[in-house]
Amino acid sequence: MIKRRLGDIIEIKHGYAFDGDHIITEDNGIVLVTPGNFKIGGGFKEEKCKFFNGQIPDSYVLQEGDYIVTMTDLSKTIDTLGYSAKIPCNSKRMYLHNQRIGLIVFKDEDVCREYIYYVMQTHDYQKSIANTSTGATVHHTSPTKICDYRFYLPEYTVQKKVAEILTSYDTLIENSQKQIKLLEEAAQRIYKEWFVDLRFPGYEDVDLVDGVPEGWSKELIGNVIGKVSRTKQIKTADYLLEGSIPIIDQSRDFIAGYTNDSEALVNTGTPVIVFGDHTRILKYIQFPFAKGADGTQLIISDRTNMPQSLLYLSLIAVDLSNYHYARHFKYLKAESILIPSQDVADEFDRLISPILSQIQKLREKCYELSQARDRLLPKLMSGEIEV
């Protein structure tokens, strides 16, 4: 293997400074790519995107399969700076090349592009970028620093085989994530049909009283939730990359980290809904876990005719976007939801709980595949495992 400089193979094109007045949270299909779209370890993260509704220069529209790199990181641990990602295939969305995001342009056509993509997801590469970053709270790198990274490059056939192995894992993960999204959308459609359109089983024989089916009620969320026993809360600085207990907090990542502290264990025997007081993110947790940093609210129902599956989907339907940055839990508890009759509640739970269980199994599959891929990547790239 010969040692090469990244700058001999690629160059990095800066993004455009889009007008901040036109950055929105409503999904209009035009994604403004930000450092928040990069996963820890590399790869594109499409949840909770920012969107844009202003003028768009044609030369700053990214294409499916474009390789990009993040040059800014707001985290204390500098855990995404320099990582690569790939623009996904999504016919319903346009992706904009924003400032502080680099577009990777290949100069050497005799190198496997996918292999270089994975070089830029190795621990050695990312740490070299993080260690040369500037800034105290917001960390920055530059095309020059990225291009200065040197690594051993095997012959093309080896590059190709390594890239194919790693891509196969990423494809399996991506397919599982697509299945999760489809199942989530199916559950929300059923909820809308039953509790918004009021087309629940047997609705033809039920009278409406002030817009509420007879035998149902409308109540404040705060009146139908119970308390979860308090346990030790894990501070962000104490999150581990591996451990016996997964940590759930209000961040976008479903599992934020791990701990081995048994005093923090939350194990109610039933699913728990996690609500982000600041972020408004909702998670349906079906396994023992530890509660993460400040702002993580745990919610359980205290009504038999409001099963956890129904409460979760009812909370998803609540719109708190007008409160902007605030402690949202008090506003959530002040909202009203429909409480159905016991038979409708039971039938809904029988229909939805298996869907939510299937989603959890797919998440576990994604995690196992990600772990296997992350173990393989450095060994394949270093040549420890021959292909």
From TrEMBL:
InterPro entries: Restrct_endonuc_typeI_TRD (IPR000055), Restrct_endonuc_typeI_TRD_sf (IPR044946), Type-I_RS_S_subunit (IPR052021). Keywords: Coiled coil, DNA-binding, Restriction system. CDD domains: RMtype1_S_LdeBORF1052P-TRD2-CR2. GO terms for biological process: DNA restriction-modification system. The keyword Coiled coil applies. Residues 3-184 form the Type I restriction modification DNA specificity domain. SUPFAM superfamilies: DNA methylase specificity domain. Residues 166-193 form a coiled coil. One of its GO terms (molecular function) is DNA binding. It comes from the Bacteria. PANTHER family: TYPE I RESTRICTION ENZYME HINDI SPECIFICITY SUBUNIT, TYPE-1 RESTRICTION ENZYME ECOKI SPECIFICITY PROTEIN. Belongs to the type-I restriction system S methylase family. This is Type I restriction modification DNA specificity domain-containing protein. It comes from Fastidiosipila sanguinis.
